[in-house]
Amino acid sequence: MSTSPTALLDLDLRPGARPTLRVEATGDAPGWAAEHRDALRAATTEHGCVLVRGLGLGDPDEIAAVFRRLATGLMAEKEAFAARRTYGEGVYSSSAWPANQPMCMHHELSYTLEFPSLMLFACRTAPTEGGATGVADAAAVLAALPLDLVNRFEREGWLLVRNYNDDIGSSVAEAFGTDDRGAVESYCRANGIAFAWQPDGGLRTQQRRSAVLRHPVTGERCWFNQIAFLNEWTIDPEVREFLVDVYGPDGLPFTTRFGNGDPIGADVVELLNQTYEAATVREPWQSGDLLLVDNIRTAHSREAFRGLREVLVGMADPVRLTDCAPTVEVAPR
Question: Where is the signal peptide (predicted)?
Answer without folding.
Answer: none
